User: Fold 6-phosphofructokinase from Ilumatobacter fluminis.
Amino acid sequence: TRKLAVLTSGGDSAGMNAAVRAAVRAALAAGAEVFGVREGLQGLVDGGELIQSLTSADVSGILQLGGTDLGTARSDDFRTRDGRRRAAHNLVERGVDGLVVIGGDGSLTGADLFRREWPALLDELVAAGELAPEAAADHHELGLVGLVGSIDNDMVGTDMTIGADTALHRIIEAVDAIQSTASSHQRTFVIEVMGRRCGYLALMGSLAAGANFVLIPENPPADGWEDTMCDVLSGGRKIGRRASVVLVAEGVVDRHGNPITAHDVRTVLEERLGEDTRVTTLGHVQRGGSPTAFDRYLGTVLGHAATTHLLATDPGAEPQLVGIRGHRVVTSPLMECVEATRSIADVISSNDIDRAMALRGSSFTS
Ligand code: F6P
Assistant:
């Protein structure tokens, strides 16, 4: 019997539960045993009761829940070689030879490193007398599949990350609500949205909720952006617009690399236009709550594909990221996705926007 393990790691996102549920049930249906690892990569390091064999009933009733029922953590221990050696020990002693990691770019980078170190980690455990040589020989490879669970939609290898759609819905509900109070008072609102260095949520949120101006990292505002923004907003007032809304991506910087905060934008609007302006930081409300139909669907098809792929391939096969492109499930080498995602972030940080957009291609993540 093949034995697999599944975990969620990094910032939670809606739809992670759908992915876990589908991964577990697809594995069980194929006759495999599957362990759930609690508290993310930290649970892999700590082992014990945090790694438990799951039944179909264990993942019942979680499809519609936000967050992650398995729990998650940003693990410092897993960043150390000693931590990863303990994690390897915990998997080998249970006979696990395939791992599904559902997390963001940081978690998948860590998991990819773990997979590459795996044979050496087992050698170290044998040398330290903590693992029988036969056990190491039986489990000399670890299969790995990564699914991207993140609200940021910032990873190469999938058109959409699990949880981005739900966060977008939270954002447009909030912006719609703000529009009504803004309109009543003829006020201006500056709304900060999450996304790290990715402007997907801000851009799509502004489009779907009808914001009047948006600032995103992929298009760092050029010198004079304040004049452009003020012209757009005052033009709207002149034609009778009662509410003005500016969306600011949390990671936006200007062409010189200086961060632009929602409070900076408010100051500009108050000083130059004399607008009655309020700042709203949406914060973690964007990460919480029940997943949209799309994220339930996405988590389900990707969770199913993850364990199906692991069970169909040798544990020594190259680790893959399973995502969607053009509504089809696709697999891509995990390491290439991790590296391409990093290089886009580096290029954005260096402000070479034309190159960043070329790397990103026609969509945000492919
Ligand atoms: O990566 C998801 C995300 O929600 C980002 O959009 C945000 O910058 C960050 O995580 C917040 O992290 P934390 O929950 O640790 O404060």
About this structure: Residues 105-127 form the longest helix (23 residues). Residues 361-366 have pLDDT under 50 and may be disordered. The radius of gyration is 23 Å.
